[in-house]
Amino acid sequence: MAITGSCMCGSIHYSADVDKYLSALCHCTDCQKWSGGAFTANAVVPRTSVKVTKGTPSSYDAVGNSGKINKHFFCPTCGSGLYTELEVMPDMTCIKAGSLDNKEANMGGKIDIEFYVKDRPSYLAPVEGAKQEPMFG
């Protein structure tokens, strides 16, 4: 199965040829700053499965809470966040769920894991049934 996604303005499109993915919320301060929200929702897929099919995303390198580089990819026109490549997870890509097409942002209605729960805002409760990791497991 392939999942597809795009930015808000349609300049960038991508696909990932995967049978399944890990659905993850990340509450690290890097994700909070990058997204402008309390967390990011991510479809975590093998890095080799992700292909940009239209346009060229821009990227920004940030040193994450892990002390490693987080490379954030986004549309240079509209600024939509698309995916992140983490040095701490060199074989995986974290696709931002909000950029997915076909209502896939719902990620099957289930979150598998929450990362950096130590940085989760106190007004948010843990997702029931999701594994809780203080940082990256």
From TrEMBL:
Keywords: Lyase, Metal-binding, Zinc. Coiled coil: none annotated. It comes from the Eukaryota. Residues 3-128 form the CENP-V/GFA domain. InterPro entries: CENP-V/GFA (IPR006913), Mss4-like_sf (IPR011057). The keyword Zinc applies. It holds the Pfam family GFA. The keyword Membrane does not apply. One of its GO terms (molecular function) is metal ion binding. Belongs to the Gfa family. This is CENP-V/GFA domain-containing protein. It comes from Penicillium malachiteum. The lineage of its organism: Eukaryota, Fungi, Dikarya, Ascomycota, Pezizomycotina.
